[in-house]
């Protein structure tokens, strides 16, 4: 990609306040591969994000308890976190819709269990299938994942 680095730098350090120029740079940045962007199949389910590990950890959240991927309503794709969606997706995020809370929306990266929103909320921060510990801090971002 000729000029790829220059365009990337312009996106990170815009020199022009022009909305058209900024839109072009943003479109280029979204289409160009970003360092660490990956897609991985975890227990047969595709998970997109930044440096996605085999148990769904990412570059944003990498503790031993960060082992879930969440499904977004806008694209029905699984991402380890909202920051991965913001970085990788070419659209704005929308949380999983309330009327679909009875469908799988959370993936355990340890065993591959897919949980509904209710099952996830009721599980006591551990997978009901394999007992892997989930990060209780995810509750602070719940509005980004599940419609209220």
From TrEMBL:
**Boundaries of each CHY-type domain copy?**
51-132
Q: Which UniProt keywords apply?
A: Metal-binding, Plasmid, Zinc, Zinc-finger
Please name one Pfam family that this protein belongs to.
Answer: zf-CHY
Q: Which GO terms describe its molecular function?
A: zinc ion binding
Chaperone is among the record's keywords? no
Stored InterPro entries: Mito_Tim_assembly_helper, Znf_CHY, Znf_CHY_sf
Q: Which residues form the signal peptide?
A: none
One GO BP: protein import into mitochondrial intermembrane space
| PANTHER family found in the cross-reference section | HELPER OF TIM PROTEIN 13, ZINC FINGER PROTEIN
Q: In its UniProt entry, what is this protein called?
A: CHY-type domain-containing protein
Q: Which organism is it from?
A: Halorarum halophilum
Instruction: Recite the lineage of the species.
Output: Archaea, Methanobacteriati, Methanobacteriota, Stenosarchaea group, Halobacteria
